[in-house]
Amino acid sequence: MTTTTTTTTTAGPRVDSAVRLVHLTKSYPNGPEQVVALQGVSLAVSPGSFTAIMGPSGSGKSTFLNLAAGLDTPSTGQVFIGNTDITALSPDAVTRFRRRSIGFVFQSYNLVGHLTVGENIQLPLLLDGRRPDERWQQALIESVGLTGMTDRLPSELSGGQAQRVAIARALITRPTVVFADEPTGALDRRTGDQVLDVLRSTAQRFAQTLVLVTHDPHVAAAADEVLFLADGRLAGRLVAPTSSQIAARLVELGR
Ligand SMILES: Nc1ncnc2c1ncn2[C@@H]1O[C@H](COP(=O)(O)OP(=O)(O)OP(=O)(O)O)[C@@H](O)[C@H]1O
To answer: What's the rounded Cα separation, in Å, for the pair 234 and 108?
Structure first.
């Protein structure tokens, strides 16, 4: 049977993945030439799972994450978040979709310096014209360990505390998928472990899918699955690996 559809935002029959990339490519202009950052990456991430993305420097990890999160557009290919093809949406519609369904945690926290912790956390809702749900916000603040700190300014926080604010800000909209780019990269090992625990446990508690880029095999070993990129291509995967298995794979890939 042939069916036609007038909407460009549905994916068709497959809705069993939280994130699905189809033949994704991305080239950047570099003078008269092109840098090919991603070359035909296709993959699917299961709902509620924790996936780590690893690979040598320049292998395309940040490009991958930015495209998957709708922060940048691919040269060709499609990105589905649930059953929505975000590559078929207008720029305004992508922004709206991102604000409601996607959380993003950056290495550098990206907090607004003149806003308090509480205001920073509420920001994605306010930008979307929505009112914060007090009880949800309080539950989130407790969950990330920031109780009693909501009136502080970012300059009054440690790196670990600032990243907890960034995590709460990413989760306040109850996104289905949370993307994180080196979220522990600027933190010492102990603080990084604590922040990773917070990210994992809150994602688990609220049934969110977590996709995280890291250089650190110790961080990636917490994931259900590790995907490796090399030269802009998918170069393998390990399910529930140890940090030594991950480190060995990175050596093979020429980290
Ligand atoms: N805006 C841009 N303009 C031109 N080239 C870019 C741009 N962003 C990335 N690239 C190039 O695309 C390739 C992939 O970069 P990307 O940042 O995705 O890699 P990465 O794996 O995240 O690297 P790293 O681990 O060093 O952060 C690299 O060759 C990079 O130089």
So the answer is: 26
> What fold, for 19-253?
Rossmann fold (3.40.50)
Q: Where are the domains of the chain?
A: 19-253
CA distances from 64 to 8, 70, 217, 231 (A): 22, 10, 19, 12
Task: Evaluate whether 224 touches 232 at the Cβ level (below 8 Å).
Answer: no
Q: Which pLDDT does position 232 carry in this prediction?
A: 96
Taken in order 240, 61, 158, 111, the sign of the CA dihedral is negative
Strands (E), 76-232: 76-81, 84-85, 102-105, 177-181, 209-213, 225-230
In testing the pocket of ligand 1, which one of 25, 35, 71, 227 has its CB within 8 Å of the most ligand atoms? 35
CA 104 to chain CA mean position, Å: 5
pLDDT, tens digit (0-9, with 9 covering 90-100), for 207-252: 899 999 999 999 999 999 999 999 999 999 999 999 999 999 999 9
177-181/102-105 β-pairing: parallel
| Predicted ipTM of the assembly | 0.97
CB neighbours of residue 128 within 10 Å: 13
Report residue 32 as tokens. 């008269």
Q: Which residue type is seen at 200?
A: R
Ligand 1 pocket, CB under 6 A? 28, 30, 35, 37, 55, 57-63
- The Cα 165–Cα 142 span in angstroms is 11
pLDDT of residue 243: 95
How many of the other CB atoms lie within 10 Å of CB of 82? Answer: 17
**Opening angle at CA 240, ends 236 and 242, nearest 5:** 90
